[in-house]
Design goal:
Structural class: mainly alpha
Shape: elongated
Order of helices and strands: HH
Number of strands: 0
Number of domains: 1
Largest sheet: none
Oligomer: single chain
Length: about 55
Amino acid sequence: MAKDKILAEGADASAYAVVLYKEIKLIQNTNVAIIMLVGNIDLSKLNEILNENIN
């Protein structure tokens, strides 16, 4: 999240990971699109959630 500036929920992140870690065979020299739906989350709420799970 800090490096790539991407905050994705689990299903979206798993699609990205499959392509990133080459877990599926792709046809060479083709384009791949991953549709990631976004939603808004209040940054203070995100901070609260992260702190709860770290401590």
